[in-house]
Amino acid sequence: MTLMERLGALWAGIDYPFLIHKNAHLRFSDIAHSDAVDLSEVQPGDVVALIGDFDPGSIQTLLQLIDRQVVLVPLTTDTRGQHEYFFDAARVDVVIEGQDVRRLPRADRHELIQQLQEQGHAGLILFSTGTTGRPKAILHDMTLFLQRFETPRPTQRTINFLLFDHIGGINTLLHTLFNKGVVIAPEARTVDSILTTIAAHDVEVLPTTPTFLRMMLMSGAIPDSVPACLKLITYGTERMDQPTLEQLCQLLPGVDFRQTFGMSELGIVRVKSEARDSLFMKIGGEGVETRVVDNVLQIRSQTRMLGYLNAASPFDADGWYDTKDVVETKGPHYKVVGRIGDVINVGGLKFMASEVERVAIDYPGVALVKAEARANPITGQHVELLVQPVADTDVDRKALAAYLAQKLPAHMVPRRIKIEAVPVGHRFKRA
Question: Region 304-318: what's the mean pLDDT?
Answer without folding.
Answer: 94
